[in-house]
Amino acid sequence: MLTTSGSHLLGVQFLRCVAAGLVVAQHAALELRARTGQADLLAYWHDMGGVGVDIFFVISGLVMYLSTRRIPAPADATVTAGLFFRRRMIRIVPMYWFYTMLKVGIVLFIGSKAFIDGLPLLYVLGSLLFYPMVSPASGDILPLVESGWTLGFEMLFYAVLAMAIALRLPRLKTATLVLALIFLVAQLWPDSVVLRFFGRTVLFEFLLGMVVARLWMQRREVPLWIPACLIVVALVALFVYRPHLDRFIGLGIPSAMLVLGVAWMEKVEWVRALAAKVSLLGDASYSTYLAHGFVMPVAVILGMKLSARGFGFTCLMAVLASTAVGCLSYLLLEQPMTKWLNARFGGARTLASPETAAPV
Fold first, then answer.
1. What three-state secondary structure class fits 7?
2. CA nearest to 23, candidates 259, 245, 322, 312
3. Could you list the residue range(s) of the whole structural domain that residue 76 is in?
4. Across residues 329-349, what is the average pLDDT?
5. Number of domains present in the structure of the chain
6. Of 2, 4, 23, 184, which residue is least crowded by CB atoms under 10 Å?
7. pLDDT, tens digit, 9 for 90 and up, residues 6-34
8. Angstrom distance (rounded) from CA 108 to CA 160
9. For residues 309 and 32, what is the distance between their CA atoms, to the nearest angstrom?
């Protein structure tokens, strides 16, 4: 659960569930379009569902800033930096590897039309190591578990924060400088697959999350009309009126407004009570995000059989089924495995719990 020194950002935690559901809806729309041949089918959800990634990145920046703000300063700061990075790996890598190897097993032993010519070993290794490579299935820069592309950005962000901790540098300023440098280099060498992958403005949405964290820390209490206005404006910008702008401006900034508005709404009792009742959905958002690629196609097929033209129904069915499987994956696999690995390899609890972080 997203925890910050005794304060529970339950509303932001619930946003993780919403973000995962948006991504599932987007991919369900893509699946429906592929199966029906209708290019304009559910175009709205295809276009809008990607907002879930932007919300995830902003939340990740927020949580990483909050969870590292009270790190002690030992004689060797590299020890603390190593601890931070190790706990992030424990949080992210095992579940991602599990679903990647599950995909490998499906392709090798059941078969896949997408990998009709086989599954290159180098591509599998690249996927496991978060190294950007061109997928032989789609021709895009995507790992084997396609939704895992966001984790490459997460790993880069964690590495930058670990460097700042090790060198005892200001986190926000250091992250801004390093990410800007990476973006600039990527523009100068666009032919590089790795640089082309990271040279997107979505990279800066982590910085927006860090700014949100600073604003929230500096002023926990604001008049209720301020977060209400932020949320309304953000929802309109994300889901109603979307001019053709760069992703960072058109989606990243409204996502940051939404996250900040929800964080400031924590003081409203009914908001906290409602969010607390569905906190499991937020906790399970990482499992939902990784597992939905396996569940969603099956749900779409079943939905089309139940209602051939009920595309909205089919999308909803895919979201609900993926969320249910994500919750089971979290309770039966992710939560116990993460706790065991942290107890064995996580080191002293000088950092915030790994459950506090938004992985995507």
1. strand
2. 322
3. 3-207+269-356
4. 87
5. 1
6. 184
7. 346 888 988 999 999 999 998 988 888 88
8. 36
9. 10
Beta strands in the chain (DSSP E): 3-4, 7-8
Question: What is the distance between the alpha carbons of residues 150 and 146, in angstroms, rounded to a whole number?
Answer: 9
Q: Cα separation of 66 and 352, whole Å?
A: 8
111 occurs within a structural domain: yes
- Determine the Cα–Cα distance for residues 277 and 3; give it in Å rounded to an integer: 16
Token readout for 339 is 């706790």
Give the number of residues written for the chain: 360
Q: Is residue 322 a part of any domain in this protein?
A: yes
Cα–Cα distance for residue pair 209/57, rounded to 1 Å: 7
How many angstroms separate the CA atoms of 89 and 344, rounded? 13
Q: In angstroms, how far apart are the furthest CA atoms of the chain? A: 65
Residue 30 lies in a domain: yes
Cβ neighbors of 219 (< 8 A, separation 6 or more) are none
Contacts of 359 (CB under 8 A, 6+ apart): 56, 60, 91, 92, 151, 154, 285, 286, 289
d(CA 141, CA 125): 14
Question: Quick check: is 336 in a domain?
Answer: yes
Q: Which tens digits make up the pLDDT trace of 244-284?
A: 888 999 999 999 999 999 999 988 888 888 888 888 999 99
Strand 7-8 relative to strand 3-4, pairing:
antiparallel
Cα gap 70→5, rounded to integer Å = 10
Report which of 172, 148, 150 is spatially closest to residue 161, judged by C-alpha positions. Answer: 172
